[in-house]
Design brief:
five-stranded mixed sheet, 2 helices
């Protein structure tokens, strides 16, 4: 994943699914899966990262992006999301 990000991570997309994982407990929590993706040189979508979260707050998004960029050791020029 890091190799694809280094080569093609100038522009990335990020999207969260809704309530894809449901916790079976007293809390009945719902979790979402976030996907970081980019296009490679053959115009194929390449997944460069995944995250599981239970929040769509500004704090959660900020934390997710900061940690992702720290892991990838780079920041893309463009981030496309529907949020």
């Amino acid at each position: 994943m890091m190799e694809e990000f280094r080569n093609f991570g100038h522009n990335i997309g990020f999207d969260l699914t809704f309530s894809i994982i449901k916790e079976r407990s007293d809390r009945d929590g719902e979790y979402m899966i976030g996907v970081f993706a980019t296009f490679n040189n053959m115009r194929k979508i390449t997944v460069t990262g995944l995250v599981i979260t239970n929040s769509q707050s500004v704090f959660a998004y900020s934390f997710i992006f900061k940690e992702y960029f720290k892991i990838m050791n780079s920041v893309p020029k463009v981030i496309v999301t529907d949020e």
